[in-house]
């Protein structure tokens, strides 16, 4: 979809982009090779000439930040198919119940092949090094929660990745609410023992782990890994729904299968949900 995109060019909005498509200017090279087919004001034509050549160079050099810088935020999803081979789906869990005293307990990252979880007190310090490998980060509500929390925790981390937040993209498709509710609507099914577990229970799992129960850490990691890995399906689902809205010869992405996640003892979830059960 990115090569069909013109809205990152200054002075080109949704209306002009559609006008270009209707007149057979579908991709960047179409304009550069046949711009005489459509008459534009000189300043817009000059912007097109400059930015489309820059776009070709940026794509050839895997410069995803160029597109993040100039694309409207609501259209950033268009970069996904070109950069998905170097992207990561990310989700954090936090612990603490005192607002500013909250801290990251775990971070899970899934690159479409392998999933890795970073745990406070074990390997969390390795996260800044590993996140730098990726040119694109995908989250759900990450602009407001995950990324600010990460930058607050790792004060010397300077992210050089573009960031797609799925929350506003899914809202555009009339999918609103929490991540779990949206998963259910689109057909993602979590294990039965996880379906009533939420962020509050994640805090309880961390506290239980801190008291010496290793099952609780595994339970927290699985919850975190479910959140991160399910973003992969949601990104492909949203991308396919959005490209279907355009009269363009774009190809749908295959809906991914869920990866193998950590094995857990499900009884730990029952215990945190029923603390007084004997």
From TrEMBL:
Residues 88-238 form the YprB ribonuclease H-like domain. It holds the Pfam family RNase_H_2. SUPFAM superfamilies: Ribonuclease H-like. One of its GO terms (molecular function) is nucleic acid binding. This is YprB ribonuclease H-like domain-containing protein. It comes from Candidatus Fischerbacteria bacterium RBG_13_37_8.
């Amino acid at each position: 979809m990115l090569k069909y995109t013109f809205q990152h060019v200054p002075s080109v909005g949704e209306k002009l982009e559609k006008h270009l498509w209707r007149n057979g200017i579908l991709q960047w090279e179409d304009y550069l090779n046949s711009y005489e087919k459509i008459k534009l004001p000189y300043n817009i034509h000059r912007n097109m000439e400059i930015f489309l050549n820059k776009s070709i160079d940026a794509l050839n050099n895997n410069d995803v930040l160029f597109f993040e810088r100039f694309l409207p935020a609501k259209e950033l999803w268009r970069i996904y198919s070109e950069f998905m081979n170097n992207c990561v789906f990310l989700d954090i869990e936090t612990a603490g119940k005192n607002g500013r005293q909250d801290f990251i307990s775990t971070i899970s990252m899934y690159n479409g092949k392998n999933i890795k979880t970073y745990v406070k007190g074990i390997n969390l310090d390795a996260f800044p090094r590993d996140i730098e490998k990726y040119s694109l980060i995908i989250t759900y509500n990450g602009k407001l929660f995950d990324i600010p929390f990460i930058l607050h925790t790792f004060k010397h981390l300077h992210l050089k990745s573009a960031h797609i937040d799925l929350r506003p993209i899914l809202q555009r498709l009339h999918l609103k609410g929490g991540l779990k509710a949206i998963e259910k609507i689109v057909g993602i099914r979590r294990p039965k023992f996880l379906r009533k577990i939420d962020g509050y229970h994640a805090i309880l799992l961390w506290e239980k782990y801190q008291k010496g129960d290793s099952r609780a850490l595994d339970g927290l990691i699985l919850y975190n890994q479910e959140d991160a890995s399910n973003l992969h399906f949601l990104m492909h689902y949203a991308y396919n729904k959005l490209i279907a809205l355009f009269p363009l010869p774009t190809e749908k992405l295959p809906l991914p299968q869920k990866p193998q996640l950590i094995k857990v003892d499900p009884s730990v979830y029952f215990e945190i949900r029923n603390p007084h059960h004997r």
